[in-house]
């Protein structure tokens, strides 16, 4: 099996401006995410986890800190880059739109997702997850944990996530995480979220 590789972006680093600046994107993708990939490959080399998918590693490798942190970092960021693709629908569509309506509506989701992102202490992520029955839930996880991991308080398949580590926003927003979270909704590609929801 080939080792994990840094995924290529389908857009240029400046494509998400003014919400996310090109310098942040370049450092975040080519430095931070690359480090997670490199460290993950080292952590699983020669172990029973070698050759598994990243999803399987997130589910099985959380007893090893290097695998948990770097495997989570690789999975989380790979999803993050996908749902930020420029273009596509700026509003929920299809099955995920219906799931959000069943949840209580888009505005309720937006408020709860924003609150989860803004109140996550320290570093971490906020998520929209598809549950086994097709419903959706909002939650947050610390550090590079995600809802695929058995250690997570919320169990589901992530279809949307926001990175609230400072490296994701500090160059532009400094300590104003709420401003970053509010702007994030302007660069979500809901067509991709719908695709992930239908695959989950």
UniProtKB/TrEMBL annotation:
Catalytically driven reaction(s): 2 superoxide + 2 H(+) = H2O2 + O2
Family: Belongs to the iron/manganese superoxide dismutase family.
Residue ranges annotated for the Manganese/iron superoxide dismutase N-terminal domain, each copy included: 4-84
Protein name: Superoxide dismutase
All residue ranges annotated as the Manganese/iron superoxide dismutase C-terminal domain in the record: 96-195
GO terms assigned for molecular function: manganese ion binding; superoxide dismutase activity
Role summary: Destroys radicals which are normally produced within the cells and which are toxic to biological systems.
